[in-house]
Amino acid sequence: MKPVTAYPSGIIIFLFALLQRSHGQCKEAAKKSEMNLSVKYDLPSFITETPIQNVVLYKHHVYIGAVNKIYVLNEALQNISVYKTGPILENPDCAPCEDCKDKANLSNSVWKDNVNMALLLETYYDDQLISCGSVAGGICHRHIIHPDNPADIESEVHCMYSTQMDGEADNCPDCVVSTLGTKVLVTEKDRFVNFFVGNTVTSTFQPPYVLHSISVRRLKETQDGFEFLTDQSYIDILPQFRDSYPIRYVHAFENNHFVYFLTVQRESLDSQTFHTRIIRFCTLDSGMRSYMEMPLECIFTEKRRKRSIRKEVFNILQAAYVSKPGAALAHEMGLGLNDDILYGVFAQSKPDSSEPTNRSAVCAVSVRTINEFFNKIVDKQNMKCLQHFYGKDSKYCLNRAFSRNASYCRAQDDEYRLEVTTPLQRVDLFMGQFNNVLLTSISVFTKGNLTIANLGTSEGRFMQIVISRSESTAPHVSFQLDSHPISPQVVVEHSLVADGYNLVVTGKKITKIPLNGPGCEHFKSCSQCLLAPPFMQCGWCSKRCARSQECVEGTWTQETCLPRVYEILPSSAPLEGGTKLTVCGWDFGFSKNNRFELKNTVVHIGGQTCALEAKSKSYNNKYFSHLWPQVWWNITNFSRKIPKQWKISKDFCG
């Protein structure tokens, strides 16, 4: 920095905080104090030989379902064992689970990679891992997990397929998953284990056995396969609509008496526009008579001049997660600490397509609200029949009235499958903050009173951000994890203790990221560092942000910051005085309590005291708290009385 060549007295000083008119002069100083988005963190990871599809964590062991292999890792992500699941030799004359090696040289035999479509944990009958692959009609295998050696999933493996009787090939309960996409939810009720399955099906995809669009099947007590309890235990898209009306099942979860699926599909048989739906039916409803669908919209509204409001709809769900809120968010949403909240990352799609664009939003809705909305809309008769399942001219779609209590889950005589026409809308939690990026992953955990979201992007960036309905927040963690997209498959473990972590998948790589954050090095200014969420345990150590144990040299503090001056403009001025100077820098007047008072501020340059006059109303706790106090002061002389007087000199320039 060049020295100021004139030190006039009695000069009026103007104070600015992140105003547009000061950006031109202090733009470089602002860049110097921004969060470092290029920082590299050394985190535990493991790289597989083939792409990863699914991850399960059980008794301190990580089970990874990948193409042709299942890996078993310890919590440090060190490989313990590998079980080979493919490639598999397939021949039309070979039944699932049958050894076809003697047909290897036949012209109609083909080796196929086995993509892991579902990896599930079942502990009612045995501690066992259930793996369902893309080969052999989508059947599953169960791997017994031995208590004394959880890494051994090879010594006891059973095929979950029973030979079909003549005439039953069209009704194969053991054919579970679709290679086009599937979501499987396992529940245990009344001493039975049920599998709820949503499959993407098309007319061009013709497996050797029929796969149903959505179904419920029971695990046999012999555990050698599954059974449908009735001929109504599944629903199928009509063959004529399977190509024009594809359904992608994104997420599934259970809550109290209901099972929920989240899907992406067209708005109607006649529409080219895609949207997101919530599917709900009773857990004990083996005939799926209580099946209902409802649109779910994540919107962003922006007030404009002349009181007009612009509304954007983020129509395509990319990933979802269900968890309980922290105390602050629960209070803001009028919920209890034991209420479940559904969080989703949504994207805007290309016109008449389900392909997402780089525009995203994050929305949240309590499961209680979902159920209340279902019940209220059904009472108002805002619904119609499911034309993609029945057809427009079906008896279920003509002059039909619905009178049943939608919240009732006991035995019913009438079929109640319907589509709600009124969408459940929620507003973007982060008010357009992610409108230039494609979010692909979300998981949520709590720390103290806070609720924190882990977000992943299509470009492999990992972020953490506090969720709040009353205050604006920005990511306190943002770093490039990988060049591959972050998968929706995320595991959160030990979220309430200090050593909690995420397991995050990117392509062939799985990475362990502490819930407390990977570190503090990405905070470049002291004020950013001290305003990080308390659970990150960041503090200022000389000229860097670090945790206390990492601060070997210098004093570690979480209370106050010294000002950092980057530049004074102009660098010269007339001797007669009257010049307004601009001091560019950051951490001016910052302390942990985040209070700034003009009466406590005095400016000195060259031993002269200068008058100070605020020209901005931007100084308040919230402004500092959420936009990081990198501040620009239009001044002639500068110091601060409390807690101590600061004088501008070359020593402060950074």
TrEMBL record:
SMART domains: PSI, Sema
Localization: Membrane
Keyword entries, A-Z: Disulfide bond, Glycoprotein, Membrane, Repeat, Signal, Transmembrane, Transmembrane helix
One Gene Ontology cellular component: plasma membrane
Residue ranges of the TM segments: none
Protein's membrane topology: Single-pass membrane protein
InterPro entries per the UniProt record, alphabetical: Ig-like_fold, Ig_E-set, IPT_dom, Plexin, Plexin_repeat, PSI, Semap_dom, Semap_dom_sf
Protein's UniProt keywords contain Transmembrane helix: yes
Main localisation: membrane
CDD domains: Sema_MET (cd11278)
SUPFAM superfamilies according to UniProt: E set domains, Plexin repeat, Sema domain
Keyword Glycoprotein: yes
Signal peptide (UniProt feature, chain positions): 1-24
GO MF term set: semaphorin receptor activity
Residue ranges of domain Sema in the record: 27-515
Biological-process GO terms, alphabetical: regulation of cell migration
Family: Belongs to the plexin family.
Name of the protein: MET proto-oncogene, receptor tyrosine kinase
Species in which this protein is naturally found: Apteryx owenii
